[in-house]
Amino acid sequence: MAIDRTAAEALIQEQLVKTIFQDVPKQSAVLSLMRKLPNMTSKQTKIPVLDMLPMAYWVNGDNGYKQTTEQAWDNVYLTAAELATIVPIPEAVLDDASYDIMGQVTPRVNEALGIKIDQAMIFGINRPPEWQNDIITLARQAGNNVSASGGITYDSLMGPGGLISKVEDSGYAVNGVVAGIRTRAALRSLKDSNGRPLFVSDMKGSTPYSLDGSPMVFPQNGAFDGSVAQMIAGAWNQAVYAMRQDVTVKMLDQGVIQNPSTKEIVYNLAQQDMVALRVVMRLGWALPNPATRMNGNRTNVPFAYLEAATPATDYAVTFTVTDNAETPAAVSDARVDVNGAKKTTGTDGTAVFNLRAGTYPVTIKKSGYVTQSAAITVSSAPVSQDITLPVIQ
User: Fold this and answer.
1) Quick one: CATH architecture of 313-389?
2) What is the reported pLDDT for 373?
């Protein structure tokens, strides 16, 4: 009795799923640094995050009054976004090949998935709308961008106000650095006051790069956007991701494949004697950014980046928050949350963000006021947005 493809299909799928499920985090520079949470069991996972820290007070005299304090939590959500690809292959090619084509295709599929993940999480390139802002956008709103107009220098990396210190200001220590492959040349050219190289290469073996004791990763998959940043440092274990359980790999031999834009049929598998490897995976990520003693209002983040020689263009987005009185008054200390990036309004009721082109969901809240939601679209000019926070009656 012969065993045909149908009878063995379950075994083939399981092997491919296992391989791709395990290898995608290895192909992604950021997933290999982030903290992995248990697999998601639904589209969205809620993470309670400390939002307000309790305070203690000295008591004035023997009969002084002891003050009360508060502690509060916020919800951060991991929402699974879908990433997929289809690889069509003529059956004749499979039959005539003298080597394992699927064995060659699988690593390239892993690499393609890793590229999309890195681009979306780091730079926001084709970011799924259900995901929060990318790491660069979050760091930019916190003021954790370091100018590289004078090139990469020791001070821009290690000095006060440099890359490392920006992360430390948030209350965390850097545990990893991701940099463009072209940055290695700039690092090799760094010299101390005596003209000696700060990064010494081993001419007989591989040279592990590190910055202040933290390992450096140089993605070679093409995902790093050198037009936006040259280096990104952070406490990567503070960023989390989770895989949705329904990762699927299927070998198709029936049906048609259409162009997503024109809906034109590109391949008819049955008519053209073709098979297609379809890979679908779902994952979510978040930067919970809980309140700490050094970052009590959660407006800072444990990431910083060294800008490109010519900084990426962004635009000032000014939110002006007032109450609903007959003569509106500015609302200070209101928290404006632009898709994960947080700022509090000043005494004039304003908070200014620096955003690249795109559409962002916004939430504005303050204790004693009705929380408001909005959406802001940035194209090619500064934007001003007025927000009214009604007082809770």
Assistant:
1) Sandwich (2.60)
2) 95
Cβ(384)–Cβ(374) under 8 Å?
no
Express each pLDDT in 262-279 by its tens digit.
999 999 998 989 888 888
Kindly report, residue by residue over 173-222, the tens digit of the pLDDT. 999 999 999 898 888 888 877 777 777 766 666 667 888 889 999 988 88
225: left (phi over 0), alpha (psi -120 to 50) or beta: beta
Sketch the domain layout of the chain as residue ranges: 5-25+34-44+78-286, 313-389
pLDDT confidence of residue 202 = 63
Sorted by sequence, the CB contacts under 8 Å of residue 211 that are 6+ apart come out as 157, 158, 163, 164, 174, 177, 233
User: According to the model, what pLDDT value does residue 201 have?
Assistant: 66
The structure tokens 């998935």 sit at: 113
- Is the pLDDT at 123 greater than 60, yes or no? yes
pTM: 0.86
